[in-house]
Amino acid sequence: MAMLENKVALITGAGGGIGQGIARRFAREGACVIVAEIDEATGRATAEQVNELGGKGLFVATDVTDKASVEAAVEAAVEHFGGLDILVNNAFVPSANVLLEDKTDEMLERTLTSTVKASWWAMRAALPHMKQRGGGKVINFCSIDVEVGAWLHADYNTAKAGVVGLTRSAAAEWGRFNITVNAIAPTAMGATFHKFAKENPGFAERAAAMRPMGRCGDPEHDIGPAALFLASDLSCYVTGETLHVDGGLHLPGYNSRPENVPVREY
Prior knowledge:
Its EC number is 1.1.1.47. With about 270 residues, the protein is α/β, with parallel strands linked by helices. About 45% of the residues lie in helices and about 15% in strands.
């Protein structure tokens, strides 16, 4: 029997990158997958892939910056598949890569909304349905950028640190409902990676060399199995954890200081 047979999973931002990789991995294990994606073309394409790989896919147009849209995606999962077992809060809206002093309040608000608030809304909407099923699995996303204080990502780092706090709080409180809540801190070859690789010759090779494992991660084959572990009964006694899935990049870390920023400014 497939590991996620008869399980219903909602994945935000599943139209590409890591979200799509997880959707494909879940499909191979027989899951019903709600592809909660803002881009209709990529969302429908992922849902079709889910069907082709042995799962049941449903595209639901979802804007994670809008509470009603997030809640509607959860309700669509229940209406179409009869319940909800797994919630993967993957989507976020990136902002411009600029220094902290150049980040605007609007950038901060949009980043916080698409990460912390979106996860909060989805989790609270999913809770009654998971309780009705006798338990559930929530997977949130953190980032190594928080640990290294990545330059030009101040709003993102702030938001992802908040996601860790939310993950730990929910894990502490919702264990009584047999709901586990964990986070993944991944690095993988998603859309942004391929864009950088195309624009910067040698980027992919340098990125691989930074990792102890000597290669860059694949969304489906490297990140997907970690998500599958946290979504399946194999992790029934694991909650409140942040799992690094980055080929060991968190061990050496990395220096993200832009070359054009002086060491000292007054």
